[in-house]
Structure formats: C-alpha cells, structure tokens
Amino acid sequence: MANVHVFCFFASYVLAIALEGSAVVRRSTWLHWLSLGFIAAGLIAQTFYLVGRSNTADLPPLLSSSHDWLLVLAWLAVVFDLTLSVILTLVNRNVPMGLFLLPAVLLLIGASDLVGDATSLAMSQATDVVRRGAEERALRGWGMLHASLLVFGIGGVIVGFLFSIMYVVQHRRLKHPRTVTNTLSLPSLATLARLNWWSVVISFPLLTLGMLTGIRLVYLSRHTQGPIGFADPLVVGSGLVWLVMVGFLVWLLRGDHAGGKQVALRTIWAFGLVLATLLGLQVVFNGHTSAPAPRQASATDPARSAELEGMARQ
Amino acid sequence: MNVQVIYCTHQTTPLALRERLAFASVEQLTRAYESLRATFPQSEHVVLSTCNRVEIYAAQDEANAPLTQEQVAEFLSRFHGVPQNDLGGALLWQKGPEAVRHLFEVASSLDSMVLGEPQIVSQVKEAYRVAQENDACGPLTHALFQGAMRVSARVRSETALAVGRVSVASVAVGEFGKSIFDRFADKTVLVIGAGEMAEETLRYLKDEGAESIVVVNRSLERAQRLAAEWGGTARSFDELDHWLSTADVIVSTTGATQPIVDVARFRAARETSDGKPVFILDLATPRDFEPRVADVDENVFLYDLEALRTTCDQNRRQRVREIERARHIVEEETDRFLHDIYHKATGPIISQLRAGWRKVCQDELDQLFSRFHQLDADERRGIERTVERIVNKLLHPPLEALRDEARRGTPQGLLDAVKRLFFSDE
Fold first, then answer.
1. Active-site residue numbers of B?
2. With the C-alpha atoms ordered B260, B263, B269, B270, is the resulting torsion angle positive or negative?
3. Which of B175, B248, B280, B299 is the mutation pick for testing A, counting most A CBs within 10 A?
4. Single pTM value for the model
5. C-beta atoms of B314 and A188 within 8 A
6. What is residue A132's predicted lDDT score, i.e. its pLDDT?
7. What pLDDT, on the 0 to 100 scale, is given for residue A183?
8. Which of B271, B276, B298, B319 is the mutation pick for testing A, counting most A CBs within 10 A?
9. For the CA atoms of B282, B285, B290, B296, what is the dihedral angle to 10 degrees?
10. A181 within domain boundaries
11. What residue ranges in B119-242 does DSSP mark as E strands?
C-alpha cells in the first residue's frame, strides 16, 4: 500500500481514456471492458493511496490536506463513472462515460499535485486526541461536515458540467446528421436534460449548506489563534461562486428558456466558472499546506478548516 | 462426417420460386418432417424456412449412406408439387465441412440480405426448436445447431457486424428518435400521408411503445384505413397546422410535388407550441418539409431520406469492414466443430486400443512377478515403467496416423484397418 504513488492511478486513467477512445472508433465491446478494467485498477490504487495518506496523517482524507481533498473529489468522480458505465454496459449501452469524466478526474489529480501533498503542521497537532476539548471537537465536526458538503456539491457540479457537454455533443450530432459522423453512443437528449437538471438541483443545496457550515466555522474560529476573516480571498471567491449558482438556479427554475441546449450551454458556463474558481482558489491560496507557520484559514477550504482544529487547541 | 444441406436463398433464387418451396406454416413443417422421416428414416433433419431462404439440413452417422442432392431435391419437388424442371439450378448443395460452414455463416448473418441483421439467429433457433419438437434431430444436428448458436454469439460479441442500423425506418426511429426521446409512449405521432414508408416507420414506433397516432391525409378514407390498422385516429387535412404544433413526432410521406410545410407555416405552428423537441421524418420524394424548417429553433430535428440514407450507408460500410473478422471466427469454429466430431469418432478406438495393450502387458507382468518373488518394489516399478514405455512407443505411430487423418475428416478407412489389425475378435 505504501508503494502506491499518484502516478499509478493517473497512468491507469490515461490508459483507460485511450482505450475508451479506441473502443469508440472501432466500436469494440472488449476494448470498452478493458477500459473499465483500467478504471477499476486505478480506483483500487487511488483508494490504497488515500487510505495510506489518511493513516499517516491520522485524519480523514477530507481534512488531512488540500491535496487529499482534491483526490477524494477525483475518487468520487471515478466511482460515479465506473458504476454508471458498468450499469449501462450491462444493459447493452456502451456509453463512453470515461471519455467525458476521466479528463476532469485527471485535471483534479493534476490540481492536487499543484497544491502539494504535505500534511500541515497544524493538522499534525489536530491529531492529538488527548488534548482535544469540546471546542476543538466542534471545530473538527463542523470542518468535516463543511468539507463533505463541498466535496459532494462540487462533485455534482462536475457531473452536471459533463452531462451538459454530452448534451451539446449529442445535440450537434442530431442537428447535423450528414456532416457529423459520430460513433459515440450517448444517452438521449431527454435523459441528459433530466440528469443535468438533477445535478443542478442536488449540487446547489449541498454547496449552500457548505457555505452555511463555513460561516459557522468562521464563528467558531473567532477565539482561535488563526481566526477566519470574511475578507479571506477564498471566502470572497466562494461567495461569488455561490451567487453565480443562485442566479443560474433562478434562471433555470423560471423556465423561460427556449430549449435544452440553452440550459446545457449555460450549465457549462456556470459550472465551468464554479469549477475554475474553486480549483483556482485552491491552487493559488492553498498551495503550501506544509508551511510551518499558522495562517489564516478559510471557511470554504476544508484542509484549512482542519488546521483550525490544531490552532484552536494551542 | 455425413452432413448435407440443400438450399436456395435470396442471392440465388427468385422470390417467386422461393415462395413455392417455402414451409410457410407450422402445420406444413410438421407434415414435412413426417414425410422426411418416412423417406429418409436413417437421417436427422432440420428445415430452415424464412422469407429469404429455404434450407434442409440432413445428417447421418457413419454406418448410413449420406443423402444425395438428387434425393433431397426430389423430396422438395414432390412435397411442394413443384416440377423438377422448374427447379433448374436453383437448389444449391453443400456437404461435410462446407455444409457446416454454410450454417455457421447463415447463423452469423453473413449470408443475410441485410448484413448483420439479428432476426436470422432467432429464425435458426426456432427452426432447431421445431425440428426437436418433431423428433427430427439427432446427435449430429444437435451439435451442429448448438455450434451455430455459439458462432453467432461470438460474431455478435467480438465484431461490430451487428452494430448500427441499416434500414431507413430503423435508423430513423432507433438511431435518431431514441437519441432525442427516452420513450414514445407519451408522445403524439402525426402521420402526414399514407405511404408505404409511413407504415414501416409506424411499425418501429409502435414497437417502441407509441400509442397516440394521428393520421392526416388529403383523402380521409385512406387516413381512416391507416389509422384503423395502427390503432390511431384519422383527421382532416385542414387540421394539419393544429397537429403540427401538437405532435412530438411527425412522419411525412405524401406524394405532393411541392413542400407542404414551409418555414413560415412551421414557425407559426411552433409559436403555439411550448417549444418542446419535435422529431420530423420527411420520407417523401420530393420533400414535404422545406429543409430550412430545421433552423426554426434548436428543438426541431428534421431528417429527410438523404440524411437517413447517409447514416444507413455509414453503418453498412462499418459492417462490411467487419466481414473478415466474422469469417475468421466462422473458420475457427468450423475447424473446432469438425475436430470435435472427428475426435469423437476416433476417441473410442484409441481408448480401446490403449486399454487392450495395457491389459496384455499387465497380464504378462503379473506372470513375471509371480515367478520372480525376489524382486523388490523398486525393481518391479522399474520393469513396469520400461514395459509401459515400450507400449507407448509401439502405439505412437498408429495413433499419430489416426490423429493426422482425423484432421482431414473421419478416417473411416484407417479406423477399419486398425480394427482389423488389432481387434481380431471384431
């Protein structure tokens, strides 16, 4: 387990994409199954890696570092991809989910590399259970809830983003049957529109609850050595992203849009902005978790939420 | 191995003659099996009769003489009352490995009119089932048809021969319609005109669950006839604009010389609809819908015959590319089948030969050991191993010769020779 490196599962997913691409071009079922095999192998390797990291840090991966948090997000995306692919394949629909979802997974793994993989000094202090008081336990619990809500919310955003891309690809194929030679087997527009709608409806409340728990963390951190300020760039950025989501949801629920393609395009823009902002903020403001000095934590940064625990005890 | 097939197919025989030779009903098939049993009592039979082919497979064990083409042709002529002169060269004949290969190709849809079409597998299965019901099968035909099912499954799973649809109506509904809608049960289908293509498309739509069908035609009487046939309702042509805005699926096949739906008319219809997706199949020549209707809004999906045929051709080309891979599987499976059959034929002789020689050795060794009590266990084992090696070396040439011959077919002559040389009591 200790020998598993990020490269192992990264390479597995790259191979899976290549095989899925070949399966689409050659319309080969066995290449599709081989691709699923590589995804499964990568998932197992990634699971071992995260378990190993968690054991080393003595913290759940969601809290141990931004690196691990991003890998948990990627792990969830792969689980979703593999489960859906296997189900669809078993009902004779070889939908190349991996071609759409795995690039996002690779992006997340790449981003996790940029933010560094060291466990922070504060977190190593947070593992000291003996010294933990009621306030620290509350911080840890809220931190965990905050990180979980965000990871599932952003997971929903990623899935919605990809369903929207699938919708646009399928729409283009159907509108231009003579010019677009498409061997991709994709779900129907009706299915994709419904999945897209559900991903928005599910991810929005999760992100909202993530924001609210973040505000609670701000409140709890007032008496720590590293209180969180509302002017923190991560808090401000996340707030803006949330407002974009509100605006998009209002537009979606008003139902005055002409068709599914507009919904899909706006979802791509809105969710793309959400993902770019959140990942960008992670990379820019949370790239040095191994820095020994305590620093200001953010309500929307799960790894730094965990740091608060350690700080609160000091 | 005695397997023969007499057949006529869409490739070699005109429909008029195929119709006369077909076994159209279960009753007719039952009578055919009775007649075959009476005429060729030592033979196993399976009759495969579809709209594209009539084939009679026959098989006999080695003890019985194989059927000849003339015998089976005479049977067909007598059973259907078709003079032999009318048959001419229409009936083809294959035997042995070629007959096996032919069935495997048929079951894999390599010999079908529409390459890779799936119905033939069900038809072969059904023919085999009916033959079993009529006690017409035996060990050879069981192995042959079970082998055919296996080949068909392999071709389907290991090649893309059956991927993609190749008929206009199936492409329209299966490839485009199902890529737009999840289901058709809650969709309103509007049929404009009452052409043959409309009927074929309606068949696919009904298979997909379409229930609400509205037929609009200039001749209300024809509309009513088509609507009655498909469980729909007929409407006057004056209501066309209303139904254009209501329908989810529009199938148009009128014989009009000018487009009946232009952009302005369709845009007006869309303004009174809620902008839901509409799937239009313009199957008329010349077209019933102006091509620019597709640009009215993003939820209008318009397909004319040219677009559908382009997709059909793409799928057909894709299938043709898979023929070689499919044929390779058929060859592999034919070899495997023949090897299994020949192995079964030579297996008992080889076992009998080995057992006979071993018994002779064992008897001699027992006598030897009873005379030489001083031999210890190691010495006895050494002698036993030496004798076994001698037996194996002596048996090797005849057994190898049998195996070599078996690769080319049942080595009946050699088997007889072995029996005469080594089994004097038989």
1. 51
2. positive
3. B299
4. 0.67
5. no
6. 55
7. 66
8. B298
9. 10
10. yes
11. 188-192, 212-216, 233-235
Reported ipTM: 0.75
Whether residues B310 and A177 touch (CB distance < 8 A) is answered with yes
Number of domains composing chain A: 1
Confidence band (pLDDT; 50, 70, 90) for B115? confident
The partner residue sitting opposite A261, judged by closest CB among B294, B298, B308, is B298
- pLDDT of residue B172 exceeding 70: yes
- No. of H helices and E strands in chain A? 11, 0
The label of the residue with tokens 């023969």 reads: B4
R_g (Cα) of chain B, nearest Å? 32
Strand order from edge to edge, sheet including B278-282: B233-235, B212-216, B188-192, B249-252, B278-282, B300-304
What is the structure's pLDDT at B317? Answer: 81
The shortest CB-CB distance from B181 to any of A175, A178, A190 is to A190
User: What is d(CA A80, CA A301) in angstroms, rounded to the nearest whole number?
Assistant: 24
- Among A96, A105, A109, residue whose Cα is nearest residue A155: A105
Is residue A197 one of the residues assigned to a domain?
yes
Structural domain contains residue A1: no
| Interatomic CA distance for residues B72 and A109, integer angstroms | 70
Instruction: Please give the Cα distance from A273 to A163 (Å, whole number).
Output: 16
Residue A297: the pLDDT is 40
Contacts of B179 in chain A (CB under 8 A): 170, 173-174, 186, 188-189
The answer to whether A177 contacts B179, with C-beta atoms less than 8 Å apart, is: no
Structure tokens at B275: 């902008």
Say how far apart CA A229 and CA A242 lie, in whole Å. 18
Domains assigned to chain B: 2-161 (3.30.460.30), 168-317 (3.40.50.720), 346-422 (no CATH)
The parent domain of residue A247 ranges over 6-313
- Asked if the model's pLDDT at residue B408 lies above 80, the reply is no
pLDDT digits (tens, 9 = 90+) for A111-128: 888 876 655 444 444 444
Q: How many CA within 13 A on the CB side of residue A66?
A: 26
